[in-house]
Design goal:
Elements lengths: L12 E7 L10 E7 L5 E3 L11 E5 L2 E6 L4 E6 L3 E6 L2 E5 L4 E3 L5 E3 L1 E9 L4 H12 L6 E9 L2 E10 L2 E10 L2 E9 L4 H14 L1 E2 L4 H7 E12 L5 H12 L7 E3 L7 E10 L7 E8 L2 E8 L7 E7 L8 E7 L2 E7 L5 E7 L3 H9 L1 E3 L2
Antiparallel strand pairs: 1-2, 3-9, 4-5, 5-6, 6-16, 7-8, 8-11, 9-10, 11-15, 12-13, 13-14, 14-15, 17-19, 18-26, 19-20, 20-21, 21-25, 22-23, 23-24, 24-25
Amino acid sequence: MSFIVRGKTNLKYLAIVATVALLTGGGIFLYKQYLSEDAEDYQPLQQNEKNSSGYTIKESSGIKTVENTKEGLSMNIPADWQETPVSSNQIDFFSPEALEQTGIGEIKQGCKLTNFISDGKTDVKNLQNKFDSENQENQPISYKSEIIRVSGAEALKITVEEVPGIAIAVEAPVNEKLYIFIMYPGSQNIEKCTNAFNDFLETVSIGKLSNQEQTAAIKIYSEMFENSIDPNIETEKHRAVYEKTAKVVDFPVFYPQGIINGYKLKSIESNREMTFETKGTFTAVYERDNSRIKAFEGVGDIGMVNSLDYVDIANQEAGKKAWLWEQGGKIGISLYYGPDVNYFLIGENTDREDLIQFAKTFAPLK
């Protein structure tokens, strides 16, 4: 089962509607991307000059770092993706195999990623309410809106489904500006482009603050352990890490307690954006040889996944049943998934039974 389910229609042209800018005067401008099912006029993308906009691009170690210093934005894209500056506040990126439809802009194959920045003072709840009210009658178009976090700030994520593809838009209102990111996947590349979009959002940095402002606005506890902590032997040291984390985030912290099959705690990263009165998030990484399990707690989006099963973890605190899923060759398990805070594990080079046994050890910090 997938979060994103595509339907069928006989309509020749379909409007994908996403809230892509403008907030001047307090209203939302609805950007419409038209998709054609039978258009055959496609061409390879042509690269524009890098210096034709307010964006600068630096390449190092297989990554392109894209910055717009005037707008306080930094983000990373893969080195083999092609950039096409549009204006001082808009830039498009295309995966190597991308083919764009002439005159319309729809992607026939590959991935197209757009960044757009506009002025306007708003907040995420206002964006979500206006989007829902404007688009509740746009059927049979199917969409989902949810609140996520980008660069520590709340953002509105909108997934719009329609043949022959989908569009995913993320809007982050920060410092009286609206930072917009939209992914257009080719109809045969939806999972690949969705995963690439999720990875991209992790690299986005918005609205650089001074060191003093950062200290006041963000609570952080982050530590990489040179000698990994063995929870079965160093019980108190292991617990102390989560006690420090609990002082950062604003939700009940769960952590593995008991025998966890040789996995050791390698790192912990927690933060909470105080300016936006958020609950915060944290990620703990456990390793055993070449296997890794990441424990995530807080407000987060697992993206597009395939459902595998519901499993009994016999844990009354975390919930008796847990949801098992897979994503891009990784296996995951959600202990609890709700509007306020989520608890899930992601295993890399980890088998199903190991992950389930790990989940069974989770209990609240008391």
